Every structure is written in structure tokens, then in C-alpha cells.
């Protein structure tokens, strides 16, 4: 009984350890972070240059793309 429990606990510990050391998807999260920073910088630059012409149209397009992203 105790041996079976020990084996079961060991298997669960190994499973948890492999889950925590799994790095799949980490790079995608980093790319999303970089893209978010780039979008924030673009919006900040557009807001500095005012609300005229191309800047406002580009700002509307970027905001539309951001609204379409569902996290």
C-alpha cells in the first residue's frame, strides 16, 4: 500500500516537474509583448503629432486591429 502510494506520488511529482519546465509557447508570449510595445509606441507617436490627416486615419486602423484581438 505504501509502496503504491509512493510510486503514485513520484509519478505526479515528475509530471508536475515536466509541466513546470515546459517552455513551449514562451517565445510566442515574448513576441506578443514586443508587438504590444511597438503598438504603444506607434500610438504615442501618433498622439504627439496631432489629430490631422494621416495620423488620425492610421490611429483608427491600429485601434481597429487592437479591438479585433481577443485574448
What's a quick, concise take on this entry?
This protein is mainly α. 80% of the residues lie in helices and 0% in strands.
Structure overview:
It is a single chain. The protein is an all-alpha fold. It has one domain (1-70). Helix content is 80%, strand content 0%. It has three helices and no strands. The chain has helices at 2-20, 26-48, 54-68. The radius of gyration is 23 Å and the shape is rod-shaped. The mean pLDDT is 77.
Helix/strand class: mainly alpha
Number of helices: 3
**Percent helix range:** over 70%
Oligomer: single chain
Number of domains: 1
**Major sheet size, sense and barrel closure:** none
How far the N terminus sits from the C terminus, by CA atoms, comes to 46 Å
Please tally the β strands and state the result. Answer: 0
Strand content: under 5%
Order of helices and strands: HHH
Low-confidence stretches: none
Organism: Paenibacillus pasadenensis
Protein name: Flp pilus assembly protein, pilin Flp
Transmembrane segments: 28-49
Keywords: Membrane, Transmembrane, Transmembrane helix
Observed structural traits:
single chain; 71 residues; mainly alpha
How are the SSEs placed, and which strands pair?
Layout: H1 2-20, H2 26-48, H3 54-68
Keywords: Membrane, Transmembrane, Transmembrane helix
Organism: Paenibacillus pasadenensis
Protein name: Flp pilus assembly protein, pilin Flp
Amino acid at each position: 500500500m505504501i509502496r503504491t502510494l509512493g510510486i503514485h506520488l513520484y509519478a505526479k511529482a515528475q509530471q508536475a516537474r515536466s509541466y513546470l519546465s515546459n517552455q513551449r509557447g514562451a517565445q510566442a508570449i515574448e513576441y506578443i509583448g514586443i508587438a504590444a510595445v511597438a503598438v504603444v509606441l506607434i500610438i504615442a507617436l501618433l498622439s504627439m503629432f496631432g489629430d490631422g490627416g494621416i495620423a488620425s486615419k492610421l490611429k483608427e486602423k491600429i485601434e481597429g486591429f487592437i479591438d479585433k484581438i481577443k485574448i
